[in-house]
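Two proteins, back to back. First:
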Amino acid sequence: MSLAAIALGSNLGDREVNLRDAIARIGALGSVRAVSSFYDTAPVGYIEQPRFLNAALLLETALSPLDLMAALLSIERALGRDRTMSPAKGPRTVDLDLLLYDGLTIHTPASGIQPALTLPHPEMHLRGFVLAPLAEIAPEMVDPASGRTIAQMLAELSIGRSE
């Protein structure tokens, strides 16, 4: 079994119901070990949209990273998200991002039915709305690309914003 860190977000419809539904569906992919609190956050990038509700969870799973990513995308579609029909970083019922997986570093392009996957998530260290929930449940988890813990990355991000 492997341990994966997953970020969740929603800003359309009943955000809390969307996240709880996603968490339940993710539970069918393995064993949910921890779920963070829900964080109400402002949108980043594409800012003309509703506020988000964000969370993170730890999943123990037998799925490979690529199979887990494909399953997460399937859950998004089942909950009403169509990545092809909405603007990048635009409004969405649910957004599921695979952040970390057993300390692996992976970069695979999309091919056939397999989605593209980069681990650790390439923008994780820049996103307080990802790091804060993950630090709540896994502060000592290490980003294999930088060697820093989630707590360290969050502290560095917070320091950078206060300067």
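And the second protein:
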Amino acid sequence: MRDQGGFTLIELAVTLVIAAILAAIAMPAMSTMLVGNRIRTSSTDLMSALLLARSEAIKRNGQVAVQPVVTGDWSKGWVVEAIGSGEQYERREALGIDVQVSGGPDEIVYDRNGRLTAVGTPKLQLDDSHGRVTPRCLAIDLSGMPRVSYGGCT
């Protein structure tokens, strides 16, 4: 009789068990990486929305606001719209699982010169709700330019 090539049931079971163990070890690191990517993407998207609002305020010679979709909760998304006409330039939906935003004002309004109408430098901190990754801080300077930095807002 000739030997037939192939896998035995025991070899297949051992291979599947090893693959399952490796997947279980890699899963926490993968979820942490995904949350870190969501925070980085959200901070970049919010900075882009603020730059758009500043640009539109200068271009249209009027006030443009960036405000959360749900009052006081930036993690539910935001909208960029002209004050007065209500024309909407951009809308962003919820930021995703485990991403939270803290410390932001109720709205950020740019004047026709590209500066903020409110006094001070608003800061928004984007963070993981479980504290697994380093937060990002989005701060707007006196000239109205937003900047994202690695680490929490102080």
